[in-house]
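Quick sanity check, GNAT family N-acetyltransferase:
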Amino acid sequence: MCCTHTNTAKFFSSIDEIPSQIWDALNCRKNSYFHPDFLKYLEQNHPEITFSYIVLVDQKNKPTAFACLTIINFELNSIKNDFEVLKDIGKKLHVFPDKKPLQLLICGNPFVSGEHGIFIAENQDKKAILKELAESINHFVNSDKKLKKQIDALLVKDFTKESLDITDTLKKFSYHPFSVEPNMKLQLHENWQNFDDYLAAMKTKFRVKAKKAFKQSAAIIIKDVTLENIDKILPEMTTLYEKVASNADFNLGVFNLETYRDFKKLFGENYILKSYCLDDKIVGFVSGIINQESLDAHFVGIDYQLNREHAIYQRMLYDYIEIAIDKNLKTINFGRTASEIKSSVGAVPQDLTMYLRHQKTIKNKILKLFLQRVQPTPFQQKFPFKTLETKYEKH
C-alpha cells in the first residue's frame, strides 16, 4: 500500500518501516498490544491480511497516537445464529455483496476484543485525536484509486461505555455505532490470596459446581506449552482451535497458532499457554497474556465431544482465575462469547461498541437502519458471590 504522509499523519505498510524514535516518543511498549514486536509477529504470521499503520503527529512532528489498520476478506457465509437474519436482509438490500467476500478495512486488532487498536499518548485531546484519525483513514483509502474501489466498508473497534463520549466523534464522519457481544470481565478481590479464598467467597451452589468441575476434570493432565514442545503439539492445537472458531457466530479473522511460538519468545512467562491432555491426547488448550495488571484470555481449543463429561471449558475458566490470583493481578478479561458460563465464575459484562461505515452513501444510510437491529445475544447473568463485588448494570 502506498499512501503519502499528511501534515497530521504518517502512513506505514509494515512495522519494520516505523522508526524506533516513534515508539520511544509514544512510550507504548509497556502495553503488550502496542509493543512493536507483538504487532510485527501478528503481521508476519498472517500474510493473507494486509496490515497498515497510522502515526498521528502534532505541529512539531511529534507522535501523538498510533493506530493499526487491517484489510480482510470478511466471508458473510461465516455469520451464524442470531446474525443470520440480519445478514440476509443486508444482502437483499444490496448493502452486502451477494457472492464475493466483504472487503473490510478494520481499525483495531481483529483477533482481540477490547481497545487494543488505537494508542493515544499521554496529555492529548482524545476527541481531537479521534477526529484526526477518522480524517487520516479517509485519506488512506481515498488517496489510492485501487484501494478506494476495493474497500466496501470501514470498521473501528471495540470501545467500552466509558469511551463513547470520545468515540462518538466518529458519527460526524458517517460511522454508525452498534453493540456487540460484551467482554466478560472479572475483578479479583484484594483479599483473595489463593484459589481457596476465591471459592470461599462463592455462594454454596456455585462452590459445589466448581468442585464438581474439578472432580470431572481430575483425569486431565495440564502442561505448560514451551518453546521446546510447541512444534510437536501445534498441529493438534490448531485442529482444536478450528473447531472452536467454526462454532463462533462470526470471526473477523482466523488466527494462525504459529504466532504462539513468537509470543512465547517475546513475553516468556507473561504469555500463558497450557495444554490439557487425557490419555496422552490433547483435548484442549488455553492461551492468554499478562498485560500490566490484567490477564487477558486469548484463544482456546476444546474437544467438544469430551467437554461435557470432563468439564474441560469450565476447568479452563477456573485455571485462568487461579493463574491471575497467583500472579497477584487485578482483573481477568475473558473476552466475548459463552457469556453465561463466564458469569457463573464471577465475570460481569463490559459493553463494547463498534463503528461501521459503508463506502457508498446510499448503502451507508440503509446500513444505519440495519445496525439498529443488531443486538448482543441476551444471556442470564449469574451472581456467584455471597456479596456483589462489582456493580452490574443490566442490559
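Posting the structure with no commentary besides this: The chain has a mean pLDDT of 91.
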